[in-house]
Amino acid sequence: xxxxxxxxxxxxxxxxxxxxxxxxxxxxxxxxxxxxxxxxxxxxxxxxxxxxxxxxxxxxxxxxxxxxxxxxxxxxxxxxxxxxxxxxxxxxxxxxxxxxxxxxxxxxxxxxxxxxxxxxxxxxxxxxxxxxxxxxxxxxxxxxxxxxxxxxxxxxxxxxxxxxxxxxxxxxxxxxxxxxxxxxxxxxxxxxxxxxxxxxxxxxxxxxxxxxxxxxxxxxxxxxxxxxxxxxxxxxxxxxxxxxxxxxxxxxxxxxxxxxxxxxxxxxxxxxxxxxxxxxxxxxxxxxxxxxxxxxxxxxxxxxxxxxxxxxxxxxxxxxxxxxxxx
Length: 327
Ligand code: PBG
Hints:
Blueprint: H1 15-20, E1 31-38, E2 45-46, E3 54-56, H2 58-71, E4 75-81, H3 100-112, E5 117-122, H4 144-160, E6 165-168, H5 175-185, E7 192-199, H6 206-211, H7 231-243, E8 247-251, H8 257-266, E9 271-274, H9 277-288, H10 294-307, E10 312-314, H11 318-325
Parallel strand pairs: 1-3, 1-4, 1-10, 4-5, 5-6, 6-7, 7-8, 8-9, 9-10
Antiparallel strand pairs: 2-3
Residues 121, 123, 125, 133, 169, 205, 208, 220, 276-277 line the site of ligand PBG.
């Protein structure tokens, strides 16, 4: 028995050959830019643990939205950072029509109209003085059902401020159904829900805490998923779909590519991956020291999400990378 002389390397010989046989390609339309906007600042404030990322002022956010749209990025996901003094136990800035997130939604819609899909984080951690993603009961635990009532009010206020898509990210049970009902009852049938379906309690959210001036002491392990568990991601997927999720998301990204693949295989709706703050910080920090080739590392991580089945990627490099893809 003789073997044919099989040589897979033939398809790796030249850049043109490798380009031709590439199974996955990144496109600017795959990308969504997460952006922070801070109340009361006159210019952008750098986030030290995320070099290159800022807490925007209202003006600089408008500019960033225009830049993202011109680079071909699909969407922008907004996070509001209220003045500390305005945070309270129930997260009042989240339901104030003049809260910073709502103001920013109106600003961005006025600036870009429908040229970008304008999304907002639907969660309480940015607006509560204790920093949890919900309201607390008398023993200091996050009260699931009382939190749902707050999310419902926030959803309507965000929709009224012009969000096309809301991203409920608090991992409360029943949040998608509850928010959907509230939106529909208020006449916002067209506002879509991007469910944070599989969201794990992760150390890699660290730099985000700085980006939103978080007041959290402790952790979110009683509501976000536990790293050793894969099956419950599929259970969360089933529930979010049954409750009316229009798109689903897996988060963090790189440490959870197996979860992304499982969700992508099972989901009948578009699947997003969120490359979170700590993933961004790791690459930037190593590159700063000259330990990694920054541009190649960015491309490789984004490619990994496509290969694992993501249709959409939230990344702080969205605008930069979209520009790099431009012909
Ligand atoms: C919750 C929320 C978080 C992130 C997005 N939405 C923080 C958390 O769950 O602790 C993290 C994003 C990132 O780390 O880049 N509002």
